[in-house]
Amino acid sequence: MASAPLPRVAAEPERVIVEAVLAAEPDLAAPLVEAVLVATVKRRPARRELAEALMADPGLLTSGRPEGPRAVERLIRALLDQGAVNLKLPCCARCGNARPLKAWDGDQRICGSCLARRIAVANPCVICGSRNFSGRDHLGRPRCRRHAPDEGLDVLTELCRRISVLAPGLSHLDIANAVRTTDSSRNGQTRLLRALEEVPGLLSGDGAHGPPRTIRLIKALADRGASALVIPPCPFCLRDVPLSHTRQDLRCCTMCWRATRTQQCSHCHRERWIASRTADGEPLCGPCGKTDVLNQLPCTSCGNIAPIVQRTGDQALCQRCYQRPTATCSTCGQLRPCYYASTGTPRCGPCHSKAQPHKICTSCGTERRAVYRTPAGDPLCTPCGAPRVPCVTCGHTRRVAGRTAQGEPLCEGCWERHPRARRPCTTCGAVERLYHHGLCTACAAQRTLLSLLTGPDGAVREDLTPSLHAMRLLPPAAVLRWLRGVPALRAILKELASAQGPVTHQTLDLCHPPKVVSALRAVLMAGGALPDRDEHLAALEQWLPRTYARIENTADRKSLRSYTAWNPMRRLRRLPSGKKVTHGQADAVRHEIRNAVRLLEWLRAQDLALRDCTQDHLDVWLADGPDARALVRSFLLWAHRHSHARPLDAPSLNSNAAVNLIARDQRWSMVRHLVQTTSLDVVDRAAGLLLLLFGQPPSRIIQLTTDHVVDHGDKITIRLGRTPAELPAPLDDLIRQLVDRRQGHAAARPAEESKWLFPGGLVGRPLSPAHLSKRLKAAGVRPRLARNTALMDIASELPAAVVSRLLGVHQNTADAWRLESEGPGAAYAADLIRR
Questions:
Q1: Please, what's the b/e burial string for 204-223 (b: 16 or more CB within 10 A of its CB; e: otherwise)?
Q2: 367 φ, ψ to 5°?
Q3: 536 phi and psi, to 5 degrees?
Q4: Above 80 in pLDDT, residue 437?
């Protein structure tokens, strides 16, 4: 609804009042005057009334005339306490004293004493005619102090006597204290006594027929142990709610009282309770009053003119800037910002939305949650209440995310690029689409990180400063997206903020869940907050103690621990400097140790120890399981050498590459599939061709970086070994796309992507071999069989030395593949010659 511009007294009453005060008191500071005004006249409608009076007659501040609203007197009194010298308090229109002017006498204000005299004159005593008014009797007639109603009657004693009949378990003293707590005046106690006389069941269910203090009396008596008294429900809606109003001489709830005082809203034209009015005095219902600019204020957080939903001290927050308190949702059990957080049943936003009653949409007839309403008040679902309309920029029919200055609709994508969506950040002044609370993404990310890393003392620990700097290296939008989408990450950061000491790898190892911890660890290592470490080796070291715990025999557990430390783990720890343990190496150790543990568990089930195991026992165990059980061979040989077991022997596992092959035409069929299927991801196509054409396993493919690729313009070479290899088409274009893109799947990515050709889900890390193998299998390529076949074909066509330099395999490995490709015939002929 278009509206005319508001007058200054309505749009900016504070500024009008400050200008009027400064005109009379130029020595006062404007911020001081505004602060005194806000503290003295707290309601904005009262400020508008005061601004209108001062604009019409600025002399009210200095003339002392008893005119205008009472806020004039309160403001002058407060400013005089702050050092004002030219202002003058208004004097009573009757007695001329500078007292608080509480009432009107015509168009002038008078003090409380003059008001009491006026009331006494207008109410002579019904018995003696005296003007000393004291109160009224039960018939409503005025009485003086000499002829007070029920003179000679001890009202409190009589009231306690009547109540003791209804609450026999209470003493006279308890009842008297409850009555005094409810109403300490004689007149009030008299009204309660008369109500009990007229309505005997006033305290046992008919409390709606009594005076306002009746329900307070029932509650006070119930708190002292009266169990027979009944707090009355609303007599109209029968709900157990506070009865704070009167309707048809009965106490009723607010809703039933408002039902008799509805008007037609000037905006939505519905019959509703009128909560506010426009600047012209037109009535507005509650929802429409919130949208009226007269009832909106600048948000102290974002600066936007909007309805204020929370006031805390000097802060006034709009809906977007208001943050609900965090609590554990009583429905889903998650720690989230919740409605009713201070009650015993807090509810987060999603659960609160699901709990809303569903109604039948007036437009489509679907039973859904009614988010919108028609002008007549009928329910509308979201699709019908916010229909999709054509975007004025792109023309696509989508939901409206914003509008131009002329009111034309814009979709989400066009609204993000529209200049109207960009506003200056309230902190740094950067003009962009603000994230929340009037902050740009950078300032919002900074504030969010500081709020999570601030400890109980209200400051960020010095030990957390490197971690904070590492998180700041990420793009702000990525940080906000990560923090918003992963509640466990926020919990980990709060846990680190309340802990003691620096953040180390051991500190993170104690946090959960492991997947989120791994992502955070990668960010901190990439940012320099944590030193780099071998993750596969660390995971293996954490896995071993849990595996040892399965062995019940102490001697056997000690033997296996010694073997693991001095054999497989020693080999991994003595790798060349800079070379890390691969996934395959760590997995091989797990398979070996796991089978050794299974053997020891089987022996325990047979009431045997490793020292008692014979070859017959071992043969039975080997024959009763898969071939992988033969991996215990190394452990058994070591145990015999160190006198932990008898001489035992298990067969050696020799891999036969000729068995794990596919047909040559099937290999080239896979190559054609990857070349021609453009719907596959570039990562899958490039990795599959590197495997099928160059025999590179997934563990080596993921280690490729931009340093391995050289673009010569007309061709691309890749360094897999000592000699670069030229890439055929279309593999060269695929590698060029990977170099240009290099975008992983990490929730929070660095501002500049890493040098990995195949970046993974962790910052600064490549894809894992297992994940790449899974992707290749989904694309129709079986990595192990395809690699064996590719190496077999390459070794049959090229000398072993060339294969070693070109593909980066060891010379012995190249020789082994050459012999494998020649078949058993060549080896047999050579053996005959040697004989």
A1: eebbbbbbebbbbbbbbbbe
A2: -85, 105
A3: -65, -40
A4: no
